[in-house]
């Protein structure tokens, strides 16, 4: 067990998988000589060489498209999109090609590729560089969408994503890169894709979160504990497939839930989780499910306005108090 | 080429023509749904290229793919079954006209989004280079209309920058759906776009299968030896509309008639007879054999069963993964919607 | 063989096409590939080519008609063939179409345009009133479920949620307070006993008050004394399982308007009446020292508290009346009694009486027989109490009733059997419907 940042955990996962399997390679903008714009692949180029750590032109459709082609020949590419905002340029290849080729040709094509992208706002990068459109990608059957909230999950989930034969969109969060956590040293430490995890136990209210909202939810849970309210925090970890079991199990005890996400509320992850809670546990509902999300505005540059729009720990705390009628 | 080779080549082109004609009929009867893009008139290109490719060369094309599917070696029975959406189709009835493939024959489809397969082709070539398959070439077909979309530029650029062994084949049939090149492309010859990428390029006529064989053999070996990409513009023509239902307002019948006079099957036939490789009777025999094969294929396809309901949920993922939602009827096992 | 030419599918979403113009007329020779007609779709007008050679023998569709894809539009025959009318009709019928008549008899199919009178949308002048939640009480699904499980009426619970929503916390609070109510009085009493004795002098004390007895009070006094002294009473108490009766009552009451809802007593009344049929000694009066008059009618008297005393209103022939009627009659008579408007007919002629103090939370009590009757049933409250079922502790709905009977007319065993039969009726209340 070692204590490390999420950035280190992601980096370690990539390094270990590259060592383990020659078929794994990385390609993206500035991943090689620069060492990655978030320093995740720092040192990789010198160690693994230019064949396996490939700098690409600024051409997202080609980055994802050629990763698909390489995957078809039996390789296991990890394509990096500098931020998920640039994924729209490769939208066709992510949702029309990667998600569908296996199905359309009756199972003949295997696409064991991973697309890594950084999501989220809060660094004054302006509206087009600060989005959290995770829910859009989770909409498509055929794709798997994973987004860890802790360093240990980042390592275990990324390793799983690389090892499975399905295309995975692996969404990281820039502001989470420096969060620290305990991470197992085992080179075969894997976390299952498509399984939610209870990160904190409690009987009074269920807080569902993922990615950046996980540390926020845990902080809110500490605040609630001071008020004598014990919150259970369930980390989705995967958006598709979506595992509702721990959430429903929790909800049947607590009878109330808050769902927190960094993206916009309308048509977001919270919408899906709420709908499923009502479908699966209607008789246990004591209060309407509350969704904590970003204000429905393009994110502005000004720091205070930006933070005003983004969901904060306090928002989760207040929402929890609301559903408890306390 | 031996006589046998000529006869096989001839028969293949006739089979393709007949499959396309029968498909048109079946479409009008409502038995084929969706879109149907016919390859009639372009047979020389697919038969010519596939007859000179090596087994390790990968073929990938856009949606006008029936000819490519057949010449790559997929049995006409499975092609026809796929068109009818039956479970014996080469894509198990899940793809349809635009999504035929057979990875064992190194035929990678059948792609419907214009130009999207171009970066994928670059990736396949990358895969071969990476894994040391030094003598494999990826042969990627696309229409001239696809050379204006972003994917084309990203794909070609990448293939040049990374020195990937891709033979980019532009099947220039003059009309991108209903739009001529002059109205859609900044340059009048597609090969000029390759110039923009510093990529070697050629432009050849596409109605004579023997000429295509000669030229493509030459270019293929060059790509195989040098390892870098090459663009080949092939001038061809489709006798039918873009797809079924195309009112063809963009061209007049005279033009079509003119091109029909340079029918690729007719050209090959004449060549075989002129060179005295085979007799008229032997060629007629090939015609009849082709008819029989296609009739059998249609019969096979029509009697092949529809895929079962459960097939809806197969091959979404490779790993066993729970289905999020099976649709209202299946979840409630309701009888009769 | 003649063949049908059908409306071709010319586009992936084409459902029907219009035959704009016939290019090959009846009698024309057709070669494979010749244009035979022009067909208009949503998108364009297309020239349709023939896939066979032959002779255009018959048009089956007129220029200008719209037909669904696959409908027959013409008949193509081989050169030299002249198919008959019947043959053509057979072909068409086989294809699922309607056989066509010859030119002169062909009726033009006029397309009738459906004139749908669309009503004018009513202008929304007044605001939509807010729809109240069903049942009138705002409550969470969980609270509703808990209320039902604990037999709590939602209207009685105060809601602490937004807009007065009743939530889990409120039901829990309500249940706690119900449990504690008993204990509160205890606590007060204990408190009194615990007051320290200090120097104490009596304050002002009111004068004695002498109150005149009403005529009713006097009459009751006389009768009760007479009964108590002269009738040798004996008493039997039995516990009844009231779960089924309460459930049935609830179900039935859902079907009834507010003013006609059935009370627990209505059930007891009917059950008693049916049981009395089998035990006529309990529905009897002492005639003289040697004779008992077993009454033909079963008239059940119900004790009603009125100002200044007690009255018994009588439901005549209760064994024959449906519960709904019993309820209605008793309700009316009781109301009249309370308002002092009762008719003498309503308070006379009872052959058996029931007194119910259940609404005062009395567990059980003994009543004095109303002369000249020979028995009376004293009914206590229906309560959820701990019970033993199959060796395990459970919660059950129970009610105690005590029968007072005149030992000159009946004895213990018979009275006990009566109670047993009464129990059968109350515990399997569907029998009351038969």
Strand residues, percent of chain A: 15-25%
Compute the average pLDDT of chain C.
84
Quaternary structure state of the chains depicted: heterotrimer
Q: Which consecutive residue ranges of chain C, at least 5 long each, have pLDDT under 50?
A: 102-124
Kindly report the CATH topology of the largest domain in chain A.
Rossmann fold
Unreliable runs of chain A = none
Helix and strand arrangement:
The complex is a heterotrimer of chains A (326), B (337) and C (434).
Chain A: E1 2-5, H1 6-20, E2 24-28, H2 44-48, E3 53-55, H3 60-72, E4 76-81, H4 91-98, H5 101-104, E5 114-119, H6 134-138, E6 144-146, H7 151-163, E7 168-173, E8 180-183, E9 197-200, E10 205-209, H8 213-226, E11 231-235, E12 238-240, H9 245-254, E13 257-264, H10 269-281, E14 290-294, H11 303-309, H12 313-324
Parallel strand pairs in A: 2-3, 2-4, 4-5, 5-7, 6-7, 10-11, 10-13, 13-14
Antiparallel strand pairs in A: 1-8, 6-12, 9-11
Helix pairs in contact in A: 1-7, 3-4, 8-12
Chain B: H1 3-28, H2 43-52, E1 58-60, H3 66-72, H4 76-83, H5 117-130, E2 138-143, H6 150-161, E3 166-172, E4 175-176, E5 179-180, H7 181-184, H8 191-196, E6 201-205, H9 209-226, E7 230-235, H10 253-260, H11 264-274, H12 280-303, H13 328-332
Parallel strand pairs in B: 1-2, 2-3, 3-7, 6-7
Antiparallel strand pairs in B: 4-5
Chain C: E1 3-6, E2 16-22, E3 29-30, E4 35-40, E5 45-49, E6 54-59, E7 66-68, E8 72-77, H1 85-94, H2 141-149, H3 168-193, H4 215-230, E9 233-241, H5 243-255, H6 264-278, E10 284-288, E11 291-294, E12 300-306, E13 309-315, H7 323-338, E14 352-356, E15 375-389, E16 392-406, H8 412-427
Parallel strand pairs in C: 12-14, 14-15
Antiparallel strand pairs in C: 1-8, 2-4, 2-7, 3-6, 4-5, 6-8, 9-16, 10-11, 12-13, 15-16
Helix pairs in contact in C: 2-3, 6-7, 6-8
């Amino acid at each position: 067990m070692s204590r490390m940042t999420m950035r280190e955990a992601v980096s370690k996962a990539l390094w270990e998988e590259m060592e383990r399997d020659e078929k794994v390679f990385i390609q993206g903008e500035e991943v090689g000589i620069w060492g990655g714009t978030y320093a995740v692949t720092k040192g990789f180029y010198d160690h693994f060489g230019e064949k396996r750590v490939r700098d690409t032109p600024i051409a997202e459709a080609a980055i994802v498209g050629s990763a698909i082609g390489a995957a078809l020949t039996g390789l296991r590419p990890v394509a990096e999109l500098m931020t998920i905002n640039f994924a729209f340029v490769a939208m066709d290849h992510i949702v029309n090609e990667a998600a569908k080729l296996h199905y359309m040709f009756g199972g003949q094509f295997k696409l064991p590729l991973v697309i890594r992208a950084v999501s989220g706002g809060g660094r004054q990068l302006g509206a087009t560089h600060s989005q959290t459109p995770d829910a859009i990608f989770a909409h498509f059957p055929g794709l798997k969408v994973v987004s860890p909230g802790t360093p240990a999950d980042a390592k275990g989930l990324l390793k799983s994503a690389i090892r499975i034969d399905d295309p995975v969109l692996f969404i990281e969060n820039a502001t989470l890169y420096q969060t620290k956590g305990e991470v197992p040293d085992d080179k075969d430490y894997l976390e299952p894709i498509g399984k939610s995890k209870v990160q904190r136990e409690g009987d009074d209210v269920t807080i569902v979160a993922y990615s950046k909202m996980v540390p926020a939810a845990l902080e809110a849970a500490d605040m609630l504990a001071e008020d004598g309210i014990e919150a259970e925090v369930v980390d989705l970890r995967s958006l598709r497939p979506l595992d509702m079991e721990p959430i429903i199990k929790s909800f049947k005890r607590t009878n109330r839930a808050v769902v927190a996400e960094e993206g916009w509320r309308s048509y977001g992850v919270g919408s899906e989780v709420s709908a499923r809670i009502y479908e699966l546990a209607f008789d246990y509902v004591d209060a309407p499910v509350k969704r904590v999300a970003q204000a429905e505005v393009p994110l502005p540059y000004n720091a205070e306005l930006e933070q005003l729009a983004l969901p904060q720990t306090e928002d989760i705390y207040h929402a929890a108090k609301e559903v408890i009628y306390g | 080429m031996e006589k046998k080779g000529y006869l096989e080549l001839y028969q293949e082109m006739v089979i393709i023509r007949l499959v396309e004609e029968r498909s048109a009929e079946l479409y009008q009867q409502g038995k084929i749904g969706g879109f149907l893009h016919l390859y009639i008139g372009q047979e020389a290109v697919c038969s010519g290229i596939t007859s000179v490719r090596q087994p390790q060369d990968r073929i990938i094309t856009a949606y006008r793919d029936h000819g490519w599917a057949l010449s790559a070696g997929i049995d006409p029975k499975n092609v026809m079954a796929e068109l009818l959406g039956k479970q014996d189709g080469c894509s198990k009835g899940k793809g349809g006209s635009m999504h035929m493939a057979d990875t064992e024959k190194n035929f990678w489809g059948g792609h419907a989004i214009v130009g999207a397969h171009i970066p994928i082709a670059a990736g396949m070539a990358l895969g071969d280079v990476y894994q040391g398959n030094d003598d494999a070439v990826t042969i990627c077909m696309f229409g001239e209309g696809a050379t204006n979309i972003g994917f084309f530029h990203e794909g070609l650029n990448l293939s040049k920058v990374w020195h990937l062994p891709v033979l980019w084949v532009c099947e220039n049939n003059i009309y991108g759906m209903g739009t001529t090149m002059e109205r859609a492309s900044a340059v009048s010859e597609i090969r000029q776009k390759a110039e923009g990428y510093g990529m070697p390029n050629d432009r050849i006529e596409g109605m004579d299968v023997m000429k295509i064989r000669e030229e493509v053999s030459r270019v293929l070996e060059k790509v195989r030896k040098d390892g870098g990409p090459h663009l080949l513009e092939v001038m061809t023509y489709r006798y039918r509309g873009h797809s079924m239902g195309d009112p063809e307002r963009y061209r007049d019948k005279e033009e079509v008639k003119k091109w029909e006079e340079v029918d690729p099957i007719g050209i090959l036939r004449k060549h075989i007879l002129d060179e005295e490789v085979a007799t008229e009777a032997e060629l007629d025999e090939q015609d009849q054999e082709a008819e029989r094969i296609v009739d059998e294929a249609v019969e096979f396809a029509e009697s092949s069963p529809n895929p079962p309901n459960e097939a809806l949920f197969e091959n979404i993922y490779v790993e066993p993964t729970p289905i999020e939602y099976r649709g209202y009827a299946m979840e409630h096992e309701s009888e009769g919607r | 063989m003649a063949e049908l030419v059908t409306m071709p599918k010319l586009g992936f979403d084409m459902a029907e096409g219009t035959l704009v113009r016939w290019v090959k007329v009846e009698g024309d020779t057709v070669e494979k590939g010749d244009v035979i007609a022009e067909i208009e779709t949503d998108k364009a007008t297309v020239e349709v080519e023939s896939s066979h050679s032959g002779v255009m023998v018959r048009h089956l569709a007129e220029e200008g008609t719209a037909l669904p894809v696959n409908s027959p539009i013409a008949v193509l025959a081989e050169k030299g063939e002249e198919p008959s009318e019947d043959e053509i009709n057979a072909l068409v019928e086989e294809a699922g179409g309607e056989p066509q008549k010859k030119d002169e008899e062909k009726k033009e199919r006029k397309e009738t345009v459906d004139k749908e009178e669309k009503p004018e949308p009513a202008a929304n002048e007044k605001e939509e009133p807010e729809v109240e939640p069903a049942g009138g009480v705002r409550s969470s699904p969980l609270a509703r479920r808990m209320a039902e499980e604990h037999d709590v009426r939602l209207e009685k619970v105060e809601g602490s949620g937004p807009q007065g929503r009743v939530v889990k916390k409120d039901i829990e609070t309500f249940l706690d307070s119900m449990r504690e109510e008993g204990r509160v009085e205890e606590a007060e009493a204990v408190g009194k006993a615990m007051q320290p004795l200090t120097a104490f002098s009596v304050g002002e004390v009111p004068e004695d008050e002498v109150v005149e007895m009403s005529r009713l009070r006097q009459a009751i006094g006389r009768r009760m004394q007479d009964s108590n002294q002269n009738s040798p009473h004996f008493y039997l108490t039995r516990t009844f399982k009231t779960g089924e009766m309460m459930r049935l009552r609830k179900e039935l009451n859902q079907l009834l308007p507010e003013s006609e809802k059935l009370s627990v007593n209505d059930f007891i009344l009917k059950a008693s009446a049916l049981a009395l049929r089998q035990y006529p000694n309990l529905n009897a009066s002492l005639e003289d020292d040697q004779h008992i008059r077993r009454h033909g009618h079963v008239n059940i008297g119900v004790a009603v508290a009125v100002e200044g005393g007690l009255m018994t209103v009588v439901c005549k022939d209760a064994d024959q009346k449906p519960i709904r009627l019993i309820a209605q009659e008793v309700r009316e008579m009781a109301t009249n009694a309370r308002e002092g408007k009762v008719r003498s007919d309503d308070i006379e002629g009872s052959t058996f009486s029931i007194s119910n103090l259940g609404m005062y939370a009395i567990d059980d009590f003994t009543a004095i027989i109303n002369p000249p009757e020979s028995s009376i049933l004293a009914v206590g409250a229906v309560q959820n109490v701990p019970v033993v079922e199959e060796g395990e502790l459970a919660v059950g709905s129970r009610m105690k009733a005590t029968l007072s009977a005149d030992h000159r007319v009946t004895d213990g065993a018979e009275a006990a059997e009566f109670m047993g039969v009464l129990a059968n009726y109350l515990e399997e209340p569907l029998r009351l419907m038969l």
